[in-house]
Amino acid sequence: MSHAASTRRGPVGVAVIGAGNISKQYLDNLTVFPDLKVLVIADLFEEAAEARAKEYGIAEWGGVDAALNHPDVEIIVNLTIPAAHVEVATAAVNAGKHVWTEKPFSLDRESGLGLLKTADAAGIRLGCAPDTFLGAGLQTALRLIERGDIGTPLTAMTTFQTPGPESWHPNPAFLFQHGAGPLFDMGPYYLTTLIQAFGSIRKVAAIGSKAKELRVIGSGPKAGEEFTVEVPTHVSAMAQFESGASSHSVFSFESPRVRMGFVEITGTEATLSLPDPNHFDGDIRLWRAGDEDWTTVPATGPANGRGMGVLDMARSIRAGVPHRATGDLAYHVLDSMVSITESMESGTFVDVESSAPASPALPEDWAPEAATL
């Protein structure tokens, strides 16, 4: 989709739909970025919207229509429950608003692809979490790869292993249901990073397992209660990318030994150890051919946290250029995870039909706290 520059000037008006816990993480940043102006907080439970609006000094609140019908709102930040993401995003598109959605983009290919087509026909932008790859840590690593510091990227290994969240989460059952599990819960962070480094995924192969049919809640008022595990809790996945590069990833809720945030990319000249893709910052380590130890490369650039993707979208709207954390990227990640699930079920390689355009690196002097509009 080509993008014409916005005829509006000044900060971009934003409405947040969904006043739950994650809204605080967004609003901590959205309300202090000078190029954004949060105008409305909306929620099905208007008292929740009112409480959150008063907490952040936002003048207006109400139901979903208060956000969709506001004439000065240009971007809807969709923080509703996953099952409502596509419905709310489609309503926003039909209201002429650009949309940023918390992950997942959708729960299945059909609804996600339908949303992409609806937005494209309307000339509306879609963006989606994770935007952690816009943080200083991963941006620094991607600039090193782009600059050729590791030579031609060849392979990657990623690991996310924990015992599972039921020991500390007071209501963890949803994390073990369809549309969740370690693959769909944590996979977007790792796969998005790999796609930024290697390009689109072309085919996948995977094996999955489930050690326990029942798990026990370990904390909170439901401690001691059992719940059913619906999805594989250990996933080992291989991917081949359009560049010819390949990766091996482990996503597990079955490991007493906690290992998370492990991403290593090897090229013809060096291996790069990236920071945790679930975080916005962290140093990078480089091991060149012939070295005997890692060289630490400090991260450079902003590490402000959630909402950077919304800000990049807003500035891109004004400039008439593509934003970085696009709906196409989020759909490609979803498509890849569904393909991994299909491979686990079939025992065969599965082709990934979608693709995602490369996202250019942010300039090192990109400053979220600056007023640029």
Can you describe this structure?
The chain has 2 domains: 12-131 and 307-322, Rossmann fold, CATH 3.40.50; 133-297, Dihydrodipicolinate Reductase, domain 2. With 373 residues, the chain is an alpha/beta fold. Helices cover 30% and strands 24% of the residues. Strands 16-15-14-13-7-12-11-8-17 form a 9-stranded mixed sheet. It has a 6-stranded parallel sheet with strand order 3-2-1-4-5-6, with helices on both faces. Strands 9-10 form a two-stranded antiparallel sheet.
What is the arithmetic mean of pLDDT?
95
The count of β-strands is 17
The percentage of residues in β strands lies in 15-25%
**CATH-derived architecture of the largest domain:** 2-Layer Sandwich
CATH class of the largest domain: Alpha Beta
Count of individual domains: 2
**CATH superfamily of the largest domain, please?**
Dihydrodipicolinate Reductase, domain 2
Protein name: Gfo/Idh/MocA family oxidoreductase
Region (Disordered): 352-373
InterPro entries: Gfo/Idh/MocA-like_OxRdtase_N, Gfo/Idh/MocA_oxidrdct_glycsds, GFO_IDH_MocA-like_dom, NAD(P)-bd_dom_sf
Domain GFO/IDH/MocA-like oxidoreductase: 139-272
Layout of strands and helices, then pairs:
Elements: E1 12-17, H1 21-30, E2 36-42, H2 46-55, E3 60-62, H3 64-68, E4 75-78, H4 85-94, E5 98-101, H5 109-122, E6 126-128, H6 136-147, E7 153-161, H7 181-198, E8 201-209, E9 214-216, E10 226-228, E11 234-241, E12 246-252, E13 259-267, E14 270-274, E15 284-288, E16 295-297, H8 308-319, H9 327-346, E17 350-351
Parallel strand pairs: 1-2, 1-4, 2-3, 4-5, 5-6, 7-12
Antiparallel strand pairs: 7-13, 8-11, 8-17, 9-10, 11-12, 13-14, 14-15, 15-16
